[in-house]
Specification:
Layout lengths: L4 H8 L6 E4 L5 H10 L7 E4 L2 E5 L5 E4 L4 E8 L12 H17 L3 E4 L3 E4 L2 E13 L2 E12 L28 H17 L4 H10 L6 E6 L4 E10 L5 E5 L4 E4 L4 E5 L5
Parallel strand pairs: 1-2
Antiparallel strand pairs: 2-5, 3-4, 5-9, 6-7, 7-8, 8-9, 10-11, 10-14, 11-12, 12-13
Helix pairs in contact: 1-4, 3-4, 3-5
The protein binds adenosine-5'-triphosphate and biotin.
The site of adenosine-5'-triphosphate has 20 residues, from strand 4, strand 8 and strand 14.
Length: 265
Amino acid sequence: MSIPEAFIKAIQSTSVPQFKYFSSIDSTNLIALEWLENGAPDGAIVFADHQRSGRGRFERKWVTQSGSAIAVSILVRTDAREQKYLPLFSPLAGIALSDVLKHRLQIDAEIKWPNDVLINRMKTAGILTETVWNGEELLGLVVGIGVNVLPQSIPPKESLQYPATCIQDHCSFPIDRFEVLAALMNAFSYWRSQIHLPEFMNQWQKTLAFRGEKVYIKQKDGSVQLSGILSGLTSNGELEILSENKQKQTITVGDVHLRPAEPEN
Ligand code: ATP
Ligand code: BTN
């Protein structure tokens, strides 16, 4: 298997200590989970050009088409302080990506709580964080990020639950996905160092999609659990919804889905 020169060059401009590159693999998260158990260093990454069965939340599928996307899993060996912030690692990846999109490509992106990155209300990236335990001891986390970069990365409309887009469709100059990858690794590392600070939560609040708008929280079976105005995040990163009778409700990450406006969206 040959590794593209541009990939190697991009990774050399980051602090990523080791990587595994695959032209095609089932799921980068699966490889990363195994590698974490087998002693991979903190910050190592697994990248794939194509995934045969990329994983989303709740056994859903994430599509990664060849030559057009980023599918990367970052291995994180949490230190004692970081262990208090485990639920913030998915938003960390979303914050890092939206930062890169804004500051390098002048694209305004938003984070659809808890784990999607949207451009113009369409999904351009998904994040799946998985943990590895040895009994009661946390060995670490795998933060898997899938980003649609070029138009070929967008799956057929009929296979999607939510409208999708890619970064290139919002940028007037050609995008090099390995440059975006390198910038993303650097931004991840920066925002990881801020995870315990108010700046982190402020940044998340600033990029939160649908703030001040009417949203629905749906359960897995599609039924509406509650609706109201999305007012923001609590200090723990739960979602705050102001229901129609003006009561504040907080939603924790679980088997629920956030949708804007009409329940059929
Ligand atoms: P929810 O908001 O309901 O939790 P979600 O959009 O976050 O939903 P996930 O399970 O997090 O859903 O993501 C997997 C979903 O993403 C799949 O069910 C599919 O509809 C969609 N999907 C798969 N591949 C892509 C892709 N490359 N680009 C955009 N969307 C995709
Ligand atoms: C989601 O939207 O539910 C999350 C999708 C996460 C996809 C990424 S692609 C890299 C990593 N490997 C996987 O199998 N999944 C994640």
